[in-house]
Amino acid sequence: MAQRINDYFEVYQPFPEESVRTQAARCMDCGIPFCHTGCPVNNIIPDWNDLVYHDEWKDAIRILHSTNNFPEFTGRICPAPCEAACVLGINEPAVTIKVIEKTIVDHAWKEGWIKPEPPQTRTGKRVAVVGSGPAGLAAAQQLNRAGHWVTLFEKADRIGGLLRYGIPDFKMEKRVLDRRLEQMIAEGVQFQTNAHVGHNVPVEALRKEFDAVLLSGGAEAPRDLKVPGRELKGIHFAMDFLPQQNKRVAGDEVPGQILATGKHVVIIGGGDTGADCLGTCHRHKAAAVSQFEIMPMPPEERHASTPWPLWPLQLRTESAHEEGGLRDWALGTTKFVGDNNGNLKQLHGVRVGPPPRFEPVPGTEVVIDTDLVLLALGFTGPVKKGMVEQFGVELDSRGNLATKGNYMSSVPGVFAAGDMRRGQSLVVWAIAEGRSAAKAIDQYLCRAR
Amino acid sequence: MNNRVKKSTTDPFQGLPPAQGLYNPQNEHDNCGVGFVANIEGHKSHDIVLKGIQILINLTHRGACGCDPQTGDGAGVLIQIPHAFFERECARIGFTLPAPGEYGVGMVFLPVDPQEQILCQGVLEKIAREHGLTVLGWRDTPINGDMIGRVARNTQPYIQQFFVRRAPHMDQNALERKLYVVRKQAEALIAESDLGEKDFFYLPSLSSRTIVYKGLLLAPQISQFYKELSDRELTSALCLVHQRFSTNTFPSWKLAHPYRYISHNGEINTLRGNANWMYARQSVLASSLFGADIEKLLPIIVPGGSDSAMLDNAVELLTLSGRSLPHVMSMLIPEAWEHDASMPDDVKAFYEYHASLMEPWDGPAAVAFTDGRVIGAKLDRNGLRPGRYLVTSDGLVVMASEAGVLPIKPEDIRMKGRLAPGRMLLVDTEQKRLISDEEVKKQLAARQPYAQWVRENQITLDHLPSPTNVYPTDHATILMHQRAFGYTDEDLKTILHPAAIKGEEPIGSMGIDTPLACLSDKPQLLFNYFKQTFAQVTNPAIDPIREDLVMSLNSYIGREGNILEETPKNSHTLKLRHPIISNWRLEKLRNVKWGDFLATTLPALFRVEGGELALEKAVEDLCRSASKAIKLGYTLLILSDRGVNEECAPIPSLLALSAVHNHLIREKTRNQVALIVESGEPREVMHFALLLGYGASAVNPYLAIGTLEDLYRDGHFPADYTWDKVFKSYMKATDKGLLKTFSKMGISTLQSYQGAQIFEVIGLNREFVDRYFTGTASRIEGVGIEVIARESLMKHRYALRTLTESDTELRVGGEYQYRVRGERHLLNPTTVSKLQHAVRQDSFETFEEFAKIVDAQNRDLLMLRGMFDFKVAGPAVPLEDVEPASEIVKRFATGAMSFGSISKEAHETLAIAMNRIHAKSNTGEGGEDEERFKPDANGDLRRSAIKQVASARFGVTTNYLVNADDLQIKVAQGAKPGEGGQLPGHKVDDVIARVRHSIPGVGLISPPPHHDIYSIEDLAQLIHDLKNANPQARISVKLVAEVGVGTVAAGVAKAHADVILISGYDGGTGASPISSIRHAGIPWELGLSETQQVLVLNDLRSRVRLQVDGKLQTGRDVAIAALLGAEEFGFSTAPMVSMGCIMMRKCHLNTCPVGLATQDPELRKKFTGQPEHVINFFFFVAENLRRIMAELGFRTVNEMVGRVDCLTQRTDIEHWKAKGIDLSSVLYNPPVPSHIGRRCLQAQDHGLEEALDRKLIEMTQEAIENRAPVSLSMPIRNIHRTVGTMLSGEVARRYGSAGLPEDTIRVQFTGCAGQSFGAFLAKGITLTLEGDGNDYVGKGLSGGKVIVYHSRKSEFVLEENILIGNVCLYGATSGEAYFGGMAGERFAVRNSGATAVVEGVGDHGCEYMTNGLIVVLGRTGRNFAAGMTGGNAYVLDRDADFALRCNRAEVDLEPVVHQKDIDLLYQLIMRHAEYTGSPQAKWILENWEATLPQFVKVFPHEYKRVLGIPRVPAGILVEKAGKGRGQGIGG
């Protein structure tokens, strides 16, 4: 543990395949595999569990790939709603489905079974996918394999979206992403980086050159904390902080560095992104790190309001939490206080009651000395300025791109998927969205043919 | 003279009503009492007639009456022509009769309308004259119509006798043939006429030898109705009688028996096939005896007749064309010869020859037959009907379904016997002697050199040369083929692979909750639109494993010749031992060049470019090419779908086959060829069963075989499996599955099954079915050939789509287990968790969400009930005016889940919950711990209100019966109707063993049928038995929905059930072969509606309550069930889910992770269900229902019952398949007058007032109340049934299972006891009977003692004569019995604790026995100890051939050598001698040293295993058994 916070290598140790098989054997091959509906991509979990148990890894990866383009991503960073829905979980520890998934795909890479699968014939149709996060990647791979020419536009300098610049390396090393991208390139997917549609790539060009466009740009507009002192130096969005580290690990020069080294850091937001910041700060050797959450502390065990097989309301401890830091709940931020130079010095907070009103509890005010605050409060939806506005697509009540059942936006031929469509969510949802949107686009293109 | 009954010609009730709604007269069944009396010497007397009528009267309880108690189901007598009487009578009318034998008499039913009468008479006269006969005159048959019931009177025909004289030089046989031709011709002519009352016209008989008096009468009415039957000059040497019990109450004079040659008690299960094949044979019929007249006999089988009538049609043709009557009977109803080692070879050859001529008419049958010269009786191969006979010293033979039907002095009786399975009793009044079965068979076998004929003309596949080329499996294209034929992952994983590993069909649990094929979005196989039908009540299912000696998979291929001829050519056949053949065997057939045999292959493919229309044309072309091939002389047509490619898709194999089959039947060329199916489509048992059932002779499932080969090649089988082993075990699984499928319909042989069409269609339209599946029931319309084509094309398109590395190779399926991309399931993650959340959080709101989802799913066409909409009955009522939920829940019951299948905790939780809310839980078939009969300290009662009585009778003691509110006879269960079950030994722990009265660790078998219910009159008897045991309990009969369940229910209502439960096929929580879960039975919506309609039509509905179950979950489900006619509602799956079930569907593995369906103590700890959860569920359903009731305008459920007018079929259904469905037959409302009740309004009259036990109870008050010993003696007759049972109930009620001290009540009877003598006899009661007993003596014996011995005045050899009937001691749990004579078939079946001594038993003795001790001091029949897993038997094996007749699959045979055994045996024989005075026992005791070594101990393997006794080494008894087949014991 002390060792692992010195580097950015993945914190997971590979599981011995024998123990993975033991886990797979615990799977009961249920009449109703709740796991498989707990999973957004509907991984056929019992089937590959059985194959692993029978040592048939090659068939296992085929079944796994039939529902999930990138099991190596989900096997690392998915919170595994499947495990929460596992029938064994009613009265015993659930099957460690996620580890099995990761092992299958790692095994397959190791054996060299995962090879490019270019389509046998080309349809001649061209599809632009905007945004190369998990939704865009999954859609691109599916569409390409269906025989369409796919070009993936990414505004950043590297392909991968959040996978590249959101997920810290200690959760997923980027070589895992790169080898998948190599496969896609070999299959014929075109990647265009530094291509910011609506900025340096005109929307009209896309419309003209492509038969269909998929918008999968994520939900990148961060939720802000509008309290006095927000403008002070030393208060940053998590998504300004985390990508920098990924770039550093990748060996890039990073201008305007935000570093936690030697600082008293407060992370506001108790979710996954907050945990990612926590792990990163530790690795920066921060002086102290705290993570605050406005919601009350969840119970250790599944809360009665979320009985099996629902996604449980319960205390989650990520790898980053294991590494240290202070966690606190039911704490609201009232203001930030800085020094004369506009540098952050203090955070003023207060204990609050339960949602939705978060009533401050009088007499519980606290003041915390801090010189770096990271805001990990989630996202409010896609960035509207630029591309979204220029495409003229309609938005739904939550500010996401509105689509009908077939993933098509209000503009014919323009589709949307992933966080851009359903709002901020899990990688596994993004993959599921990308696959479904690809199917819809394929149907759209075939009909047009 | 009172023959002129006024009646309107428009009376709708002539015979059976026309098909309407879900009622179809084709589904009618009848079972009955049958008998005859004859003078061996041929002496004619009026006394014989009187005796016949007396028999009939004494069999009255075997018949039934319907809504009108004065109208019977039919009765009749057949006698020889009473010449003297007619001579006298005709002289009075004014014409003279010639000598006997020179004239014929017709008994003629004529229209009532005088004009039409004259026309019919004219037709008959004209035809008679055309054939050279002289019409002598007509005589009004004097009748007394006042004697009969209202309904019978309304439909009574005008009855006359018709006299014709032979032409000169015509001998009597020729005259008989002419009379036959005349009758057939007249029948056909009038049937085609447009007479308004033509249905009245019917000739019960037209013969120079016999005459039939019959009608819609009760037995006692017959001699009063036909006045001349009392005339002393009316004489005969023989009299054949019959009393009918039909399921309907629709009056039909013509369906009364006897027919012209036979009286039949039973049911021909294979009727459709037999009738079709007979029709096909008509084209080649030729007989020198008939000459050109043969054309005039057509149709041989008169359409619209009952099974018995059709059988009689066949008998008549074959007899009159020259075969003797015994010959004909042996041909139509052959005994089980295939596996009988003891049958002489020439007799076997006789049967084998005739098997190539004709398929058996299969089904339970006791047939009495006569041609006026010989009279006899025969039993079917299974012996499923009783037949007892006696011969007196003055030459009288009396045969009847029961003993004791005539009062005959014991000292006058020369011998007593019973009809054994397949055996015949024959009296030849011309030869003046009784001919034994052996002699009859010997004579028949000697008629022709049958063995030589067969040897020279018949071959098997093994004789054919090896083919040079056999299709190899192409592993490169197999995937494409699998996809084209709709294979899913599950087909490989769940069906093929397990079958090939284990050699048996895979097992599943928790019923089915996927849509019917016609409602599914997925492309289906045509097979899936069919549902298997099965035997219930009117005939029994067979146990194909334990009783495999009657089963056969043999079939004969070849061009069928003229069955009227007896030539070697008829046996020119190819004998197939298995209908499913390998590629290699198929090639042998394809290349056959031997005799007439010549094969050609017809491609069964269609071109995809033609789209949906191409299929119909391709089928037409196929039929045309089949006709052409026949013309070219081909005798084997191989319908092949090899060659699927880009352009060609397969015609669904069943469609290809059945289209050709029906086309050729219509063309009358069907019997010229055999149809063989070479197809990639069939892979599971249901598929093969369908192909065979629609006429295939053999099936080559090349893709199923190829798939296994592919799996084998890829290393999916254990290392020690060779390919040969894989293939063989798949074949074994298939064979077993086929036999199981036949046997659940009560069919024993493949030959009879072929073409028998024992299926119902759900969701194919009438046009399609009429054209390609002629005669199959299909009642809700559905899709046609275009949709079937579309489904084929969908599969084909999918097959040709290129696969990527990350595609799954096959579709997931999701039929057996839920899969997101698979088939939809009613129970899915959402509904299961919602329901659990609702009941655990006590949240009606969440339940309403659940109900909304379920109802929406149903509307989304998962279930038929989703296709209904409600119509309001009246103005909405305020919710508070609707009866409270606490009242509604009283109508709810939980399903029959046994303790054993579910855990103690789960079982008791259900009971507590249901008792708290005054609803009913159900024991299931596993008995119930007596400690649960008393309330707990907290007031909870763990006793189940419904006590089930199932075929295994586990723990069914008197004490169990008296502790019930409902006694439920489980005739069938939704998940596997017509099948038995098995609880493996490792699941039988101490508690289960105690409750089931068995031995811990010893496996338990539930037989497929109740061995005391082979027919409807048997069911009536069981109901009577149970009602006697507990007069306060309602008797409920559980049936499973299938086509015809309504008519069965009508019979059950007439058998006096108080409640009838109709189970849907989708219900069922128990473990069962998955093909049965999916393919047997139909949704309850159809079954319930049919039942309601038929009961209302019969005016029987008001006597019974109807209960329904089958995946009921919401108030809407209940509302629909109530509107369709149900008063009570059963739930199983939903309460299970409420207690925590998560549909693991592995109940059979004992691994239930939530502790419900398991006996594992560790897993049971995980059970978290509470009574409150169950109570919440039921109250939620009731509340949910109340809201619907309020909206519809109902205040009470009673108001809703049967209000089918408040349902309508939705008009907004756009689903590509479902839109073709038409539910109007389900919503049919029979137009009956308003006084006919549509729900239960009155109680059944069980006739308990007349019970002899009333007297016994009165006379034994001292014993019952004060335990004071009482001794009585009294006479007894066969009409005294179930004696001692009500008395036992009284004892059990007071003293529980402990009963009274031994011999407290002793009753000595003299005479012949009726059925069920001493049934459920309680401890402390001893019944002694001097005389004879009928069937079911000591059934369910519960501690009492039964002693029966022959009359002391008997002069025959006691131990060689039959003393008691069939199925004695069935389900006995404790007590003792001593029988000083022989017992019938199935002695001590399912005995689980009684001790008995008997001096000989029939077939199947000690079957399924699990405990207890049986001593047989004489011969046993075949198949002794089949399925016996516990207890012991000692058999005296004087001839050292017992081993041949013992089924040694489960038992070892050992000498009696241990002193303990010897002492026990000696003591028992001593007691036997003491109680019965048996000379046999005395002799044995006197010669003990010499006799002891002749005793064999029958010791079950399992029992030995749990006792820790090693198996006897092979060979110990070899010498002893060596006389037989040389098959050593244990060898």
Task: Give structural notes.
The complex is a heterodimer of chains A (449) and B (1531). Chain A is of the alpha/beta class and 449 residues long. Chain A has helices at residues 17-26, 34-38, 45-53, 57-67, 71-77, 81-85, 97-111, 134-145, 162-165, 174-187, 203-209, 238-249, 272-284, 319-322, 387-391, 419-422, 427-448, and strands at 126-130, 149-153, 190-192, 212-215, 221-222, 235-237, 264-268, 288-292, 326-328, 331-338, 344-351, 366-369, 372-375, 379-381, 414-416. Chain B is an alpha/beta fold and 1531 residues long. The A-B interface holds A 28-34, 36-38, 42, 44, 46-47, 62-63, 65-66, 69, 85, 87-88, 90-92, 115, 117, 119-120, 145, 307-310 and B 489, 509-510, 802, 804-809, 812, 816-821, 825, 827-830, 832-833, 836-837, 840, 1140, 1142-1146, 1151, 1153-1154, 1166, 1168.
Key words describing this protein structure:
heterodimer, A: 449 residues, alpha/beta, five-stranded parallel β-sheet, 35% helix, B: 1531 residues, ten-stranded mixed β-sheet, seven-stranded antiparallel β-sheet, 54 strands, 32% helix, 18% strand, disordered N terminus, disordered C terminus
Query: What is the percent of helical residues of chain A?
Result: 25-40%
Count of DSSP H/I helices of chain A: 17
Alpha carbon gap, first and last residue of chain A: 57 Å
Cα-to-Cα separation, first versus last residue of chain B? 74 Å
Please describe the biggest sheet of chain A, giving its number of strands, its sense, and whether it closes into a barrel: 5 strands, parallel
The 3D shape of chain B can be described as globular
Shape, principal axes of CA atoms of chain A = globular
Would you count the extended β strands of chain A for me?
A: 15
Q: Classify the oligomer.
A: heterodimer
Q: Helices and strands of chain B: which structural class?
A: alpha/beta
Query: If strands are numbered along the chain, what order do they take across the biggest sheet of chain B?
Result: 43-44-45-46-48-50-51-52-54-53
**Biggest interface in this structure?**
A-B, 34 and 38 residues
Class by alpha and beta content of chain A: alpha/beta
